[in-house]
Amino acid sequence: MAKTAEDFNKRRLRSSNITVVVSIALVLFLLGLMGLILINAQKYSDYIKEQLVVNAYFDENFDAKDSAKTVKMEAETFKKIQALAPVKRATYISREMAAAEAKKSMGIESSALFEENIFPSSVEVALKPEFVDPTKIDEAIKQIEATPGIVDVKNNSTLMVEVYNNLENLLKWILGFSVLFLILAVVLINNSIRLKIFSKRFIIKTMQLVGAKRRFILKPFIKEAVILGVIGAVLGLAVLFGAWYYFITQIGTPFAQDNDKLIILVVGIFLLGVLITVFSTIFATWRFLRSNVDDLYYS
C-alpha cells in the first residue's frame, strides 16, 4: 500500500515537473519568436532606409580639353564623400552612365537625338540608417553639399522623413508587443511554479515545524527550479530555432544575419527562463514558510 502511495506521488511529481517545463518552453518560445521578429524588423528597416538615396551632382559645364583634370577632380571628390560620417554607401555615375540610363528610361536606342555630355556626372549616396532621422538628415545633406566639386544635391527629404516615421512606428508596435509577451512570460511561468509549490505546502511546513532552517528548506527547491528552468529554456530555444529554420527554408530568404543580436537573444531567453523560475520558486516557497499551519488549508 505504501509502495502504491509512493508510486502515485512520484507520478504526480513527474507530471508536475513536465507541466512546468512545457509551460516554460512554450512561453519562452513565444517570447523568442517576438525577439526574432524584432531583430529582423530592425534589420529590414535599416535596409529600406539605405535605399533612400541622395544625388550629388558635379558641374555639367566643362572643357573637353580638361577632361583628364575633371576626371581626377571628380575622383577626389568621390573619395571625400565616401569618407563622410553619414555616408553608408556611395556610387559614382559618369556622364556616359547617366546618358545610358536616360536612354533606357526614355526607350531611346539611338545616340543621335542628344549628346552624351548633356548629363552631368554625379554621386549616388545612401545614408546610414541613423542619419535618415529627420533631425539629422539636413546636416548630412549639408556635409555633402560642402564637399569641393559638388554644385548641387537633390533628394526627396519629404519621402525620407515619411518612410522613417512609418518604420519607426512599426518598430514601436513590435517592441510594445515584445514587452507585453515578456510580462505574460513572467506571469505564466510564475503561476506554473506557484501551483507546483502549492502542492508541496504541507511538506514545507512540516520541515519547518521539525526545526529545519528556511535556507535548508529553500535549497532543494532552488536546485530543482534551476534544472527545470534550464530544461525549459533549452527546449523552448530548440523548438524556436527549429521552427525558424523551417520557415526561412520554405520562403528561401535569409533572416537574422546579425550574429551578435542572435547571441544576445539566446543568452537573454536562457537566463530569463532560469531566473524567472528561480525567483518564482523562492517567492512561492517563502510565502508558505511565513504562513501559519491553519492558513495552508485556505491558501
TrEMBL record:
Keyword Transmembrane: yes
One Pfam family hit: FtsX_ECD
Membrane topology of the entry: Multi-pass membrane protein
Domain spans labelled FtsX extracellular: 54-153
Entry's localization field: Cell inner membrane; Cell membrane
Keywords noted in UniProt: Cell cycle, Cell division, Cell inner membrane, Cell membrane, Membrane, Transmembrane, Transmembrane helix
Protein name as it appears in the record: Cell division protein FtsX
Gene source species: Kaistella pullorum
